[in-house]
Amino acid sequence: MVLSGIAGALAGAFSMAVGEFVSVSTQRDIEQANLTKRVSVLAGNAAKAKQEAMDGEEALRLPNPYKAAAASALAFLCGSLFPLLPAMFVARQTLRVMTVVAVASISLALFGGIGAHLGGSPAKVSAMRILVGGWIAMGITYGLLKPFDRDGDDK
Length: 155
Hints:
- By secondary structure, the chain is mainly α.
- The chain has helices at about 1-40, 45-55, 65-90, 95-120, 125-145.
């Protein structure tokens, strides 16, 4: 279970990083194209173009896909530690699964509520949405991997 958890944490972190990189790169390309269009429209009006350049330095505010990918991977790895650490220290398989589910559930609800509060959303609704989504993901993952379980309950 621990080796699978580590593999899942690494695979998830890399997957999140690649997805974030692609998404932010696409956003950056769109914003760069819009900026180029605005500059070409303003080219006929030199005074207005100069003022807009002085106001913003918009090219410096374009999103950085490398930073976004690194932040996403790091956030995923940090979040994966919460259920992974108890899995390392509980020997019996049944107790280990229950402990991981409990720790993951508390973590999901807690961080979902905190994130919602910081973002100005209703904490209770967001925490429940994240918790239920996490339960669904855990259930599907458990159901798909259970047929490959070779540990049994003898540890």
